[in-house]
Amino acid sequence: SGKSPYLMFTNRHEIRRIDLLKSEYTQVVPTLKNAVALDVDVSTNKMFWCDLYHGKIYR
């Protein structure tokens, strides 16, 4: 498909992705308070995360 593999992750304050071939970071979701869980549904191309500060699950 020509796309580089990448890893999505959170550092609690934002969600980022890193290109595993180029080691380049991209900010995906900025200015979070306390995001502690992250999941990606590849079949629907949707991302979910939990922010403990707000007590919510986001999509």
From TrEMBL:
<dbReference type="InterPro" id="IPR011042">
    <property type="entry name" value="6-blade_b-propeller_TolB-like"/>
</dbReference>
<protein>
    <submittedName>
        <fullName>Chromosome undetermined SCAF2945, whole genome shotgun sequence</fullName>
    </submittedName>
</protein>
